[in-house]
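Section 3.1: Structural characterization of target chains.
Under the original work plan, the team committed to producing a structural model for every single-chain target entering the pipeline before any wet-lab resources were allocated. The record below documents one such target. The sequence was received from the expression subgroup and is listed exactly as submitted; it comprises 262 residues.
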Amino acid sequence: MIHFLSRFVQEDLSDFGNLDAADDMLIDVQTITDAMMTTAQKIGELGIRFALNLLVCWLLVHFFYYKKSRRRDYYFTFIVFSSAMLTLLYIMGNVEVGVGLTLGLFAIFGVIRYRTETVPIREMTYLFIIIALAAVNGLAPLYHVVDLSSAPHYVLGWGNVGVMALVNCLMLLLVWVLESESLVKHVTTKLVQYDRIELIVPEKREELIADLEKRLGVKVENVEIGHVDFLKDSAMIKVYYRLGKGESNSVNTVTRAKDYVG
């Protein structure tokens, strides 16, 4: 046994420092780290990421969200939030801070900004979409190292750019399909302070709907009875009705002037 171990150690030491064909395939860590991106490459990478993200975000907000909601405040918020998110992810993704802290910072910012008001589910959905796209566009690898054995350097991988663009196009396509007039029944709501409380009983539901359609000028799909004030002979009713083509419902659930933001 001792003789076998002695031969093994001698053979291993005899091969120390010799490189064969298999050893040539090994990559030295220091060689990889020697590859540095030039300033022009960094500016070009940031330009590609920023331009693609801004274009996709603008298409989403302008042609899908704003076309129906007409909310200029969220229009501004979505564009700026997406651009700022991408810039921060790109810068912090190249340092030791890491992506986790970056996303945590934006979560804190989101809580500070949106905890003071009720954000509709549609706006929250679009906000999540633009954050996800900003993360993809800010972190997806675009450059790769070549010539590892001689002169390692970075080159732009157009295949990576194509994949990133494809992800953005798929998200645009998904939103377009889901927002299509032919696929989505645009049923919205309106809050009504109703004065004829004798019609709010279940047995007079059809008469109530007919009266609401006549006075509101819409085709009522359903109604919900809320707060009833017998002293003032009034009730709060939530009316469900179908939106016409091109119509929006940004203020349909607003009951006080101070709640409206133009």
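The radius of gyration is 31 Å.
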